[in-house]
Every structure is written in C-alpha cells, then in structure tokens.
Amino acid sequence: MNNEKKVLIIAHRGASSIAPENTLRAFKKAIELKADCIEFDVHKSKDGEIVIMHDANTFRTTGHFGSVKEMTLEELRQLDCGDGEKIPTLRELVRLAKGEISLNCEVKVRGIAEEIIKIIKEEDSLETTIISSFKHDVLLNIKKLEPRIKLASLEPNKTGWIRSWISRKKLIRVAIKNKFYAINPFFKLVNKNFMAKAHNNNLKIFPWTVNSDSAIKKLINLGVNGIITNDVEKVRKLLNQII
User: Fold this and answer.
1) How far is Cα 25 from Cα 145, in angstroms, rounded to an integer?
2) Hey, is 194 helix, strand or coil?
3) pTM for this prediction
4) In whole angstroms, what is the distance from residue 177 CA to residue 174 CA?
C-alpha cells in the first residue's frame, strides 16, 4: 500500500488513552505505538514560551486554577499533569518527534504564529508539520509568514452543518479558496459526498476525535486520509482488519 492510500493514525494529544494528554509521556507512547502523527495544542506563557496545553486554564489537567498566559514557564513547570508529567514546550516535542513521527499543531490563540514558525524552521521540521486551527485568520497569517507549511482548517461540531450539505460544501469551498492542505472536520460531518468533493479538489480529510469502533470503521470505508483518535491501538487493529 502506498502512502497516498494509507490511512494515517493521528494520536490526539498523544496516546492520551494510556498517558496524560499533551505530555512527553503521551507523545513517547504514540511513537512507541507507531502512530503516524501526533496532534497537540499550543498556547503562549507569560514569558513568551510556546507551551503544549489544550485549555487556556490549567485546572482540568493539573488541578491548579491558573491562566496559561498569566504564568511563566517556570510556574507552569511546577504543575503536575498526571503521573508526575510536566507541561512541555513546543521545542521539546519537535525535537522528540524529529525523525520519528510527524506533527499536527493546533493553534488555540492568536498572536503566536511567528514564534511557532520560528521554532519549526529552526528545528528543521517544516516538511513534517501541519498547522491546524479553528481560526482561519490565524492560518492565513501563518501562510503569509511561511507559504510552504501545510495548513488544515479545523471545523467544529455544529448541528446545522451536520444536517446541511450546503454548509458542508461551503467549508470545503473556503478550504479550496485559501489553498489549505487539509480539513480536520468533526467526524460526523464526513459522508460520501463530503469525501468525494474534498478529494476531487485535492484536500486531505483528517476527522476528529474518533474513538468508537463503528465510527472508525465507517471513516476507513469512506476513504479518509487519517483518523485523529485517543486510542491508537484500536484504530490500528481495525485498519488491519479492513485494509
């Protein structure tokens, strides 16, 4: 099977079903399990470090109520993400991943594009990184800063969109217009017509976040390019059964 036909296994926040999300342990586990890509989220600390954390507040993952942007890296490092794991930086992950696994970096906030691109370029990881965001203006700004990097529009769970083919066609048209590499849609947005229109326009489709057997099987059969999942082992098992 060539790479064009391969369904990529994308570890959501690392191998987050077996290790604390968005930590170096979760990322190392994803590499050990031979996932194809790590999906993760970035924010900026008070002292300008790009750190890996899904939420703007640290409470859910560390038990400490604090705003990432109002804490220094040193203060963030004092927190426990579970199993003694600390909040990592983008540079730490990029160095860990180099030569091992590709990256899908979700940008959660505005105003940090230049720092992200700087790190990725300094670490020579441009070709193995996709930048994704729900904020299309962020992606377009990144495109201006570095036209070579792959961009993916994240599309949310909106009931109207799931029911409406017009809405789904619109988000595909936007991705085409902006020359994005991929769309990372909420998995229920994906159906046969969606896949056909996307692939006819050379767009990759990487749905999120897919953990149930039935949804994984359906998406594999629809021909998605990759699956963003918390359970790397389950997706691999089902891929081996179907393909």
Assistant:
1) 31
2) helix
3) 0.97
4) 5
Distance CA 132, CA 145 (A): 15
Kindly state the tokens that stand for 208. 């999120």
pLDDT in tens, 143-202: 999 999 999 999 999 888 888 999 999 999 999 999 999 999 999 999 999 999 999 999
Q: Where are the alpha helices (DSSP H) in the chain?
A: 24-32, 59-62, 73-77, 90-97, 113-122, 136-145, 159-163, 165-177, 192-200, 213-222, 232-242
E-state strands within 28-135: 37-44, 50-52, 102-107, 129-133
Question: Distance from CA of residue 134 to its chain's centroid?
Answer: 11
Residue 228 structure tokens: 């963003």
Q: Which residues are catalytic?
A: 12, 54
